[in-house]
Amino acid sequence: MSVEVTEIASPQEMSETIAEAVPQPLHEPVRIEPDLAFIHRLVKAGGSTLKQCMQCGTCSATCALSSDLDPFPRKEMAWASWGMKDALVNDPDIRLCHQCNDCSARCPRGARPGDVLAAVRQEWIVHHAVPRFFARWAHQPQSVLLLLGIMTALLGAALYLKDPLARVLGFSEELSSKIVFSYSSMLPRWMLNLFFLTLGILAILPVIRGVVRSWKKMKTAAMQQELGAPRKKLIPSIGAALKSILSHEKFALCTEAHPRYWSHMAAFFGFIALGLVTLWVITAPYNPLIKGPFIYPLNFWNPWKLLANAGGAALIAGCVLMLKDRMKNSEQTGVSNYSDWSLIGLLIAVALTGFITEALHFVRLEPHRHLAYFVHLVFAGALLLYMPYSKFAHVVYRTAAMICAERYNRAKGKQQGQNPI
After folding, report:
1. Residue 154, CB-side half-sphere exposure with 13 Å CA sphere
2. Which of 184, 202, 386, 402 is least buried, going by the fewest C-beta atoms within 10 A?
């Protein structure tokens, strides 16, 4: 019988063999340099509980919208507590959160991740805003008079330059055999169209810049998750996202703050109705659907006037319900800060001054109806011009995030089913 003797490797050779067999780390160590000012702003904006997080993962497990491949908000809570501003302001997942606060209600430590992510979204807008000081002002209560004053001055300048512009551009008042009492003869429709078109351009350019930057970050995140090439084309992705938005199906998954579903539906569709009527009036001179002379203001029984009144009433009702929920059910709806109150208040102001202007117009009360119309236009202009810098911008950025999620098929796992807890 023969015995085969195997040479025993030396300790050095064994350590080298083990080192070759152990996989090397995929990422280099990250040096964290906490941004203490950023943490302070998060705490001030409603994220005062972020230090109570113990990274148990309950928030990610309970969220019906979180992706299984890259769940949130557990990692965002860690980044926030460490002051990792650069990671958070470039994180696409904070846009997928609808702040239903199921995670906050079920957090065993009361860290309230929903409130922390809301504060992060506010910082995201400020970080990407151009110019950035406008965003800072939009989130500071002491700046409200300044912002409204800027809009009042812009509208006043347009009023002052009305006649010189009319002569330069060749505009003249249209004459009609019908007696029409305009909302304000001092503010002709051509001037208002030109004024709000300018405001729209000033508002849309920063939004486009922010969406493009966000889209690049979301594509990078999809590559890091090894999702590969897009699973859907862009148009079907847009259609799927818009269907989700119109049905508010994400809010329907919420269990803790389900009443918000109805308040958001009322405010959302009320605002859409007002937007459609505004678009109809603005495009009247070029609208092929309008036959014959276009008489403005619209009479009370005009279908578009009825739609505008219904939309205004729905917008006010939805905002009032939001105020009621936020004041009485803060545990379910989350902590409210100035950004929340200012947006709700501005939407109510736009709708309410619109109704006041309409009532004063029909009773022909001079000069009150002109003043009311001017105030209404100031609030409407502020809503438009400051949209890229206020919480209103979430509508655009969240839509972009939902489109990207559909395009890369991130909306799977828990997102297609019900809340597992």
Report:
1. 20
2. 202
